[in-house]
Amino acid sequence: MKYYLIVGEASGDLHASHLMAALKETDPEAQFRFFGGDLMAAVGGKMVKHYKELAYMGFIPVLMHLNTIYANMRFCKQDIVAWQPDVLILVDYPGFNLNIAKYIHSNTKIPVYYYISPKIWAWKEYRIKNIKRDVDELFSILPFEVDFFEGKHHYPIHYVGNPTLDEVTAFQAEHQRDFDQFVLSNGLTNKPIIALLAGSRKQEIKDNLPMMIKAAQSFGDYQMVLAGAPGIAPDYYQQYLKGTNVKLLFNKTYELLQHADAALVTSGTATLETALFRVPQVVCYYISLGKIVSFLKKMVLSVKYISLVNLIAGKEVVQELVADRMTVENTRAELSKLLTDKSYRQQMLDGYQEVADILGTPGAPHKAAKTIFKSLV
Fold this sequence. Notes:
The chain has 18 helices and 13 strands. By secondary structure, the protein is of the alpha/beta class. The protein folds into two domains: 2-161 and 361-376, Rossmann fold; 177-359, 3-Layer(aba) Sandwich (Rossmann fold). The N and C termini lie close together (9 Å).
């Protein structure tokens, strides 16, 4: 069968590449065409555009590139119609993908599937109307979404498990923990590690990394190691690292988490990855005009938490320092508790185990692939 996939960022490229690999196992005749990234290209098929050509985040960047965004949308629609796939598979990235879904549903008979459902339970819940109208099958990777979509909105979905669990489990099976080798091969010292995961976008890094460093540098018995994000040039980090003893590593995030004693993490998939590696963490997400944002968060967001760890657990497992609560002093105090209070640390690790139990067993891409193929034959 012919599968057309669309992703808009690095995490989508990762998850879609595993789905494609699983589809190839399920369907030996699988052909792929996609808006995607290097990981998807490594699986095979034709990459029409790289996601880096699509990824404009924030009001001003989007406004400045409206012509490019609309041109990409037009081209994408035309390319899908010309190729006539057996199914269109959208991966997250709702601003772009829901527009494509509307066009394909209205103008063709190509079924529209959504892998990694849009997080409308957090904001823009009105998009449920678009999803019900334009999406034929929705695949969720978060267990609490079942109640949201099916219970609240009476829209049936497929919960297939969480691919991050697959990725972490596979990494741990292939990599034995060897701290001495890790520090030696990456030019580190033998001090225990505080990992810094400052986000995947420049604005997140700008807002969070300086305060993360100031908080963590108070602990002289530890070394700070920063995980470089895909798509962010090393030069961009240097303006924040100059004059510090922070070590920057690219393409080593899982290795870093495997050896870290604690972590400062911005919200996102990284919070779940950190939990699955059983690294105590502080969720840090500073936003300028924080007090206003805190007020708006209470008024607009329909969820109590921003981290996947707490959302999945349904309770506060990790401390979330968001907006005006994200200060150097608060971050330093929480990090100190993680490093020195064994009882507090163990309580968080117990919470991590609850999260892992809720997620279930690995196999999300294969479950999704089998369900997709079965529904099309």
